[in-house]
Amino acid sequence: MKVPTMAEMMAAGQKPEVLFWVGCAGSFDDRAKKITRAFVQLLNKAGVSFAVLGTEESCTGDPAKRAGNEFLFQMQAMMNIEVLNGYEVQSIVTTCPHCFNTLKNEYPELGGKYEVMHHTQFLKKLLNDGRLKVEGGSYKGKRITFHDPCYLGRANDEYEAPREVLSKLEADLSEMKSCKQRGLCCGAGGAQMFKEAEKGDKEVNIERTEQALETQPDVIATGCPFCNTMMTDGVKIKEQSTKVKVYDVAELLADAQA
Amino acid sequence: MQYVDNIVFVAVLALAILWFSKQVGKIRRNINLGRDIDRTDNKSARWQTMLRVAFGQSKMQARPIPGILHFIVYAGFILINIEVLEIVLDGVLGTHRLFAEPLGGLYDVVINFFEILAVLVITACVVFLIRRNVIKVPRFTKPEMKGWATRDGNNILYIEIILMLALLTMNATEANFEHAVAGPFLISQYLAPIFSGMSQDTLHIVERFAWWFHIIGILAFLNYLPISKHFHIILAFPNTWYSNLKAKGSFPNMEAVTKEVKMMLDPTADPFAAPSADDSGAAPERFGAKDVTDLNWVNLMNAYSCTECGRCTSECPANMTGKKLSPRKVMMDTRDRLEEVGKNIDLNGEFKDDGKSLLDDYISREELWACTSCNACVQACPVNIDPLSIIVQMRNFLVMEESAAPQELNLMMTNVENNGAPWQFAQADRLNWKDEA
């Protein structure tokens, strides 16, 4: 797979159009790595000149900040900003809404000012610019429901980009009873991904999966590697894995390429 | 003797206003116990937010039934105030329906409009009472609603119904007057027969009684506000004006930490250097919030603005799945603790340590760690209260002052520190995905 790093680009005297911030989940989690690769496929297909930081990338500090460790967050932020500014990065695209939110909203004050896009926003642009095309393909008429990631939706008021990309698949889009501004969390945010939930009578991802299953979907679409894990687990626990698949918007779009 | 009524009225009015100002003054002082935060930027956006969210009640309409009913009560409250102005002037000047003559026919139109509003308000309040006490809408029966919170909610509705009935009674008696200055009345004409058998003298006594009952009721209600959740009718406006205009996902960066981190990352920094002149030598502020005085004043104003409607809690994923966390309880606890601190100051002149704090005595760690920071509560609040801000500041205290994060989170943070990822993977393996599959 053709994935240039910033270091290689710089050595060759080149500057990419956009930096692809992969994120920790996208780099290490087996399920999320598939999303990463699907997105790279699309970037290559569209002829986007991009690069990744590779081993120079480090956690944005998001989970530390949400857990209350401001010190660790700022350490991570400052180190990342030093790397990014060193490469004179101007625009960043990322497949993780948590990285997206942190880079976009919390880095500028610390000296990291970039144009930051979520990958669904970037894909929307590529489609609208005609750089990417969808040939109807495998999702025509399939029932898809989109789960809004909190850090893309409520946190940054982006509800339309993922839906616009999905609409190009000519699929049958149906909304859950809680969607967009009132979308229900998958249960992973605020560093919950890394700990057991407090005592309760249900897991949040089960509640959300039930809402998704009510729409009788063929596919639950997500735009976040953590939501993806939570929903995949939910579907598994509800014993619907054979009928209902959980895919990232990028995977669906990559799949629908002729 | 002819001025007795006027004098009594002015005295009652002055007393009510004085007492109300005193109570508001205390709330103001309590709110100012919070840390400073600048929320005066972008004034035009702030006015717009206030117009849209507070005046226009835009966020109330997310739930249409209570949204519309609430709008009726709100419109009734604002518009009937015009009649209250007449009542106050009548009281001061010793007149009867001062506006009737100058307004002529328009007066009857206006009064009839108020009558319709009064009936709508009564209807809305009755529906609200049914929702709270008969249907028992789940968000009104959560654990934090036990006792005073539930009584407070009902009190307000009863008072509003009684005040509106007094208003209609005033008109219904007027309708039987030989020399009525107003009428016919659209609604109270149907109540008028109740009083038609009375002599003119008795009618006037009943009318006066309803008049005094109405105005004293309003003044008493005014003084009930500061101890009630109903104070939101005042604070909703500043609360939306000062609300956070940034993206909801943007958590503020702590400046004190930035300074330290910059120094740590600066190879030329001298850790043993003498403190610079602008270092006052005072003990540094605590990281995060353990008690209400560690929160900022907007957080504290939020607490006084909360009317305990519970929309936040009903949208909270943690609460929905049976966890202890309830964003509404966070706000109620903050207000209760702040009131306690305020009373402590009233008693001792300044705050004397009472061995209590917002953390643990009011809000448990279990509640704080159950939050997914999803912002559903912030989105749901009709007056832009931000419970998440308080939760995060209290987490800041737990982690940065007490190192008291749950074990699994400590592990996650150690990983971030050591290998730049929340899991234990080597930094060198970050690009392995490229060649897999």
Automatic annotation (TrEMBL), chain B:
Alphabetized GO MF terms: 4 iron, 4 sulfur cluster binding; metal ion binding; oxidoreductase activity
Sorted alphabetically, the keyword list is: 4Fe-4S, Iron, Iron-sulfur, Membrane, Metal-binding, Oxidoreductase, Transmembrane, Transmembrane helix
One term under GO cellular component: plasma membrane
What does the record list as coiled-coil region(s)?
none
Question: Where do the 4Fe-4S ferredoxin-type domain residues begin and end?
Answer: 297-328, 361-391
Q: Which InterPro entries match?
A: 4Fe4S_Fe-S-bd, 4Fe4S_Fe_S_CS, HdrC_iron-sulfur_subunit, Helical_ferredxn, NarG-like_sf
Please identify the protein, giving its name as recorded: 4Fe-4S dicluster domain-containing protein
Hydrolase as UniProt keyword: no
- Entry-linked Pfam families: Fer4_9 (PF13187)
Domain of life, source organism = Bacteria
**Record-annotated membrane-spanning stretches:** 6-25, 68-89, 109-130, 209-227
